[in-house]
Design goal:
Layout: H1 12-28, E1 35-41, H2 60-72, E2 78-83, H3 87-102, E3 115-116, H4 128-137, H5 141-149, H6 161-177, E4 187-193, H7 195-204, E5 220-226, E6 229-234, E7 238-241, H8 244-247, E8 257-258
Parallel strand pairs: 1-4, 2-3, 2-4
Antiparallel strand pairs: 1-5, 5-6, 6-7, 7-8
Length: 259
């Protein structure tokens, strides 16, 4: 059975989501194309215990997966890269851009280097030492997320999750609004982060709870403009409108609509 270090299907559902939304918008909004921001997890990484976890690099297989992911994205899109400062996130974004450009992407600026952004890191961990200790005793990140959302983790360790989600969405919206208007070929900003951030935004926005689906390498959430609406979509099919209420840090009580 393939393991995380040998599987070659990481990111395929995320890339398929981008293609699906692009195809939908080609019918409903042919003059604007896809205007989107993809918040995604980095590629396959090492798990060395002799260094800080955030310093663990990509594996060679992870580097291959990142480039393959870039080749699966629509060639006509203009891509820009942003990443959490740890090198595995920056390198993931760089390799995705390289894969996209090397596969015949029309725009030469897709080869530009990604820019690190602290807002894509684990800024919501206000006391990282105690966070790591809690993670190690929680028997898995999904259990830790449940404790965080249920209020069992003190606020001096972890920022309130709804507030952290709203701050991340504001940053993603900033990227979305910075895209050039009227680009009929479409535009996609890659924002490479960590599994904890994907779990956080998915659950706090009402898409899926942490225990519904494990966040795999290269899993992502697509924020995109659909007419007068801004939507956030999971590759698992759930989708929500990004409203002022959500941006203030209060998610809906139910799960997103399945598309």
């Amino acid at each position: 059975m393939p393991t995380d270090q040998t599987r070659d299907d990481f990111g395929q559902e995320t890339a398929a989501m981008v293609r699906t939304v692009q195809a939908k918008l080609a019918e409903t909004a042919p003059d604007t194309g896809l205007q989107g921001v993809l918040l995604m997890r980095h590629s396959a990484r090492e798990y060395r215990r002799d260094i800080h976890d955030l310093e663990n690099p990509l594996t060679d297989h992870g580097r291959e997966l990142a480039q393959a992911f870039g080749r699966q994205l629509p060639q006509q899109l203009t891509l820009r890269g942003f990443a959490s400062p740890p090198h595995r996130c920056v390198e993931t974004a760089e390799l995705v851009l390289q894969g996209h450009h090397g596969h015949g992407a029309a725009r030469p600026d897709t080869a530009a280097l990604p820019r690190p952004m602290e807002a894509l890191g684990v800024f919501y961990a206000l006391d990282q030492s105690r966070m790591w200790k809690g993670l190690n005793s929680s028997n898995g990140l999904q259990n830790y997320m449940h404790s965080w959302f249920s209020g069992a983790i003190p606020a001096e360790i972890m920022m309130p999750p709804q507030l952290a989600m709203a701050m991340i969405l504001q940053v993603l919206l900033g990227r979305l609004n910075s895209a050039e208007a009227g680009d009929r070929d479409g535009h996609l900003d890659l924002c490479v982060s960590h599994d904890m951030t994907i779990y956080l935004v998915r659950q706090a926005c009402g898409l899926e709870a942490a225990h519904d689906h494990r966040v795999e390498f290269l899993d992502g959430l697509l924020l995109y403009r659909d007419g007068e609406h801004i939507r956030l979509r999971s590759h698992h099919g759930a989708e929500v409108d990004v409203t002022d209420t959500l941006l203030r840090g209060y998610a809906g009580t139910g799960k997103g609509n399945s598309q």
